[in-house]
Amino acid sequence: MKTLEFTTEELCLEPRLRIALVTETYPPEINGVAMTLQRMVDGLIGRGHRVQLIRPRQARSDVAQSSGDYEEMLSRGWKLPRYDGLRFGLPAKAALVRAWSRQRPDLVHVATEGPLGWTAISAARKLRLPVTSDFHTNFDHYSEHYGVGWLRQPVSAYLRRFHNRTETTFVPTAEMARALRAQGYAHVEVVSRGVDTALFSPARRNAGLRAQWGLERDDVALISVGRLAPEKNLQLVLRAYAAVREACPRTRLVIVGDGPMREAVARDCPEALLCGMRTGEDLAAHYASADLFLFPSLTETFGNVVLEAMASGVCTVAYDYAAAAEVVRDMDNGLCAPSRDEPAFIERAVRAATDGVLRQRLAAQGRASAEALDWARVIDHFAGSLIRVWRTAAAVPAEAVAAEHLRMER
After folding, report:
1. How confident is the model at residue 404 (pLDDT cuts 50, 70, 90)?
2. Residue 230 DSSP symbol
3. This prediction's pTM
4. Are residues 215 and 354 in the same domain?
């Protein structure tokens, strides 16, 4: 796949766009999508673009922010069932048409696939605005973990139709791009992810924190970071920990995050340290103070936590899937098991926990790999791709754009 790259000189000559970015999640909500979008928004503004962020109101006291090249438009929303802390936006086509008629954006970018996102695409098409989208979450895969597996095909069909109404769908990995194209998605482009290597760093390893965990210098801390939910495959984390502890008794399991499975994890593994949600330098210290990062999820579109662990100098064990498939090389800069091969995943966890020399070598190589994953380069690519879509739309007669949208609808 050809990757677009833009030189500093080219970026300086690029036009500055007014971008309407629509999302149903944004900080202070804590999840990979929200954190990635905040990074992208900050990067776009830093490159001279103006951003209008459209998102659901997160609390009654929530007010729209406006500063310089950034402004917010808040919509109505409801809590997402069984997903505390997240909301979905209600349809808002009429409000968006009014707002964008008064102050027309150059391009609309829709980051999430809920009712707000769907109506944002409809509003953009009504006003003949170019519109792009992100594929951040495998919602069709989630259905199997919440007892509604029969919804997978209808959800898959909805997602495909949603994204095929846009000029380009951005995905984080080449593997996902291939999978979506095979399912009939049109105009898919890879925009990867980066990691903040100044925040997530081995230098944040904290002996005092390890002492709070009940560990001495040579003891092993296994860490899992993420939402405590069925789709994260946490039972495999617990099975891997049990196997590691049998081979290496001086081991502790540290779990960072919260969610509906918290009580089940506490019941099934009472010795696990449940640290709850952590952010910023506190989160970075938790990563760096561990020795082995376990990530067995098979529902991610990317998995930012993999890059954060690698940047923190923690040996990573994951499936050959999503972010790990892109950046982890088995026995080189981490440990990667074939997807769904649970014995292989557990075997790698035990091997790394019991071989300190191997673990430290893989951790150092993981850090070196993370240092090459620069956010600035990722955002340059994203900004350049938005400009390309805008230029293409500006050069195509409106009738041709409408005909292409009609073709994709079918």
Report:
1. low
2. G
3. 0.84
4. yes
